[in-house]
Amino acid sequence: MDLFPRPLKEIWDEWNLRGAVLVSLFFQILLIFCASSRKRTGNTIMTFIIWSVYLLADWVAAFAVGLISNGNKDGDKQVQSDDLLAFWAPFLLLHLGGPDTITAFALEDNELWLRHLLGLVIQFIAVAYVFLESVSNDLWIPTILMLVAGTIKYAERTRALYLACLGNFKESMLPPPDAGPNYAQLMEEYSSKKDAHVPVKIIIAPEKRASTSASSIPEEPSTGPNHISEMESGYKFFKIFKGLIVDLMFSFQGRNDSRKLFFEMLPEKAFRVIEVELNFMYDALYTKMVVVNRKIGYFFRFICTGCIAVALQLFASHHKHKIHKFDIGVTYALHIGAIGLDVIAIVKLIFSDWTIVLLKNSTAKRWIYYAREKLFFYKLWEPSKSFFDRRWSNSISQHSLIRYCLRERFNWFNKLAGIFGLKDLLDEIQYKKTVTVEEKLREFIFEELKQKAKSSAQLEEKAKSAEEKARRRGDWILSQNACHSLLWSVEKEYDECLLMWHIATDLCYYYKDKQEEKEIPDDVKEEELRRQLCRFLSEYMLYLLVMRPTMMSAVAGIGQIRFRDTCAEAKKFFRRGQQEHYLDTVVKPIEVKGDRSKSVLFDACMLAKDLRKLNKTKRWKIMRKVWVELLSYAASHCRANTHAQQLSKGGELITFVWLLMAHFGLGEQFRIQEGHARAKLIVTK
């Protein structure tokens, strides 16, 4: 007894190959247009769609190659000519190469480059086998041309994965081995001259090095986020600081050069330059851009396009009276799709940031830049001043503990979601909200980090100075503002400190005293802005702690346990209908509850009461500064590869802070002294 009805099997046998080939082409079209949007949005649904298409595109193409190499011996009737079967196979090899806009969905995919190399060999053998089985066919010339094009495309993808593999990425940035001055030879010469009673002495001459100065970065009037000078600045910093991803160390001279340049920048420009820099990092790790944007890359790309165009011409002139009309249509669709995708890829390549920054002719740069801004057909996928013009999501996610506790789901629903592993996903959908990163927030973060960098620069030029600044998480701010009574709140573990300040920020945000009610409108507006900035940072940091635990693993500690215990205590407290300011918190919570529960709810209430004792202007000023220190502490202590992973998920503000701190010389990545000193023997009189 057949599992499926015979008519259904006949439909499958007739359409499986046709359907697989057309679906494979459709997936390629989706990827070339939509894959790059994942760096511009953190939307879960969009990310899931791109992930699904990315996986299915390879599977469908490999499945179709398998059907063709199998020869459709199971009664396949959809293709009347074996010649056409052999001709279709290289198109699928072309599809397996994928578009330029995506080679890896996640950073871990790059580590599988060897598997893709093996896949290239196996699929090439399968396609070559199909061709050799029908070597006498009339379409052997266009088939060979398409086989060349498909092999080039697949090899490009494999090469891109190889270069983006973190081990190879690091290897490519290591300088050539340097044994330094020949100590043995120098001392032999010194000893021999001493024995000969020749007056000689050793002089240590510092080695000269080319210094990057502010003049090396072109300063032109800025006209927009894509301005040429910002692209060039971003690219130069990318070439220097891409080693951060693989934990390379940098010299103090490099720190001083970068710090000097960023001290002279306005906040808006600094963030745009970092945006460009991170965009180059994204391209290097997740696309073919590093492979194709070089002379040999252009050479192979034009060979590939030429092969496809000639193959189309040869097929068009071929006698097709023995081929089914629908199959002719499928073949033309494959051809037109291949040429269209290649032309789109070439146009995007020519007008890319990479091409603009690598061109040495300034006139050509300007022409390409202005053409990119004005041409209608380019704006179809890169329209100005829109979603597609962004290089990252330009947003931060928000999560509130109080909102989470007050909007509790039914217990049975939580248990059901937990069984299927969907609880975290549902929490994100229900409790996470997204806000735009306002210019005022960027400006405040920039100025705070700039002041921190300046104060460390005024101290001794030692790594410890910058490292100590990066390790601060509120204690220095509180000490500088004579708030010693609040120091207890930042002397705890980082996750405990973050949760307490988050709850205290929420309590202070909703609390208004009589003085605040009498404020004049202008004061209210300014005060509201300060309060909003505090709340944005507070809810963003809680989002990272609770919903991005992998990224915060270096500093999170038992943050998720504390969060759950605090939520449990908060829900119990809210059910009693009590209000925080009715409680007497003279006795510390830990003395009453012990250490079994990790809840920090009432510690946060004590902190909120202490904060309310401050003048409201001073209160919000201190709270903003503490939150920036908590953010910068997390940014500098998160593993570098977690920052790189977020580039393909819309990006994170904490990644911008991480890179901005590196440019300001704040952190532990500056360890290398300025270079070798060269010793010389000088004969004295």
From TrEMBL:
<keyword id="KW-1133">Transmembrane helix</keyword>
<feature type="transmembrane region" description="Helical">
    <location>
        <begin position="48"/>
        <end position="68"/>
    </location>
</feature>
<feature type="domain" description="DUF4220">
    <location>
        <begin position="51"/>
        <end position="404"/>
    </location>
</feature>
<keyword id="KW-0812">Transmembrane</keyword>
<feature type="transmembrane region" description="Helical">
    <location>
        <begin position="88"/>
        <end position="107"/>
    </location>
</feature>
<dbReference type="InterPro" id="IPR007658">
    <property type="entry name" value="DUF594"/>
</dbReference>
<dbReference type="Pfam" id="PF04578">
    <property type="entry name" value="DUF594"/>
</dbReference>
<protein>
    <recommendedName>
        <fullName>DUF4220 domain-containing protein</fullName>
    </recommendedName>
</protein>
<feature type="transmembrane region" description="Helical">
    <location>
        <begin position="138"/>
        <end position="155"/>
    </location>
</feature>
<feature type="transmembrane region" description="Helical">
    <location>
        <begin position="15"/>
        <end position="36"/>
    </location>
</feature>
<feature type="transmembrane region" description="Helical">
    <location>
        <begin position="298"/>
        <end position="316"/>
    </location>
</feature>
<dbReference type="InterPro" id="IPR025315">
    <property type="entry name" value="DUF4220"/>
</dbReference>
<dbReference type="Pfam" id="PF13968">
    <property type="entry name" value="DUF4220"/>
</dbReference>
<feature type="transmembrane region" description="Helical">
    <location>
        <begin position="328"/>
        <end position="351"/>
    </location>
</feature>
<keyword id="KW-0472">Membrane</keyword>
<feature type="transmembrane region" description="Helical">
    <location>
        <begin position="114"/>
        <end position="132"/>
    </location>
</feature>
